[in-house]
């Protein structure tokens, strides 16, 4: 959107459509902090105007849910070894996009487990980028 808002959606199924606002919702640090959908005043108020703009004549909300996914501060992946534990690979901060990259992330994890050098330059995904 021109104002920087980012929405995503999934194809209609059973006359239903799933949409969400990528850069909206509740900001939490732990899963237990997440409140149910409609417990926060902005729930729905963020997505409904967008939906009505792109799909005029759309019906009302049949169901709402609060969903959680992890974000890194720069919204880019973190793929690195755990500091102090060089035998532990961390793949996190996928910002809601991990499922789309599952094949390559799996390949990276498999190569790590087998002691192989990754086929990809993982430098941009190092955890240390946040301490610079």
Automatic annotation (TrEMBL):
One of its GO terms (molecular function) is sarcosine oxidase activity. Keywords: FAD, Flavoprotein, Oxidoreductase. Its cofactor is FAD. GO terms for cellular component: cytosol. Residues 3-111 form the FAD dependent oxidoreductase domain. It comes from the Bacteria. Gene3D superfamilies: D-Amino Acid Oxidase, subunit A, domain 2, FAD/NAD(P)-binding domain. The keyword Flavoprotein applies. Its EC number is 1.5.3.-, 1.5.3.1. This is Sarcosine oxidase. It comes from Salmonella enterica I. The gene is solA_2.
């Amino acid at each position: 959107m021109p104002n920087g808002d980012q929405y995503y959606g999934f194809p209609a199924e059973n006359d239903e459509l799933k949409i969400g606002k990528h850069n909206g919702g509740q900001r939490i640090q732990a899963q237990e902090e997440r409140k149910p959908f409609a417990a926060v005043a902005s729930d729905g108020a963020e997505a409904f105007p967008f939906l009505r703009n792109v799909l005029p004549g759309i019906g009302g909300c049949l169901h709402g849910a609060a969903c959680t996914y992890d974000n890194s501060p720069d919204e880019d992946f973190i793929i690195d070894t755990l500091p102090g534990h060089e035998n532990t690979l961390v793949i996190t901060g996928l910002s809601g996009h991990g499922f789309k990259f599952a094949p390559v992330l799996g390949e990276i994890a498999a190569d790590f487990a087998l002691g192989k050098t990754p086929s990809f330059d993982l430098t941009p995904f190092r955890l240390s980028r946040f301490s610079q």
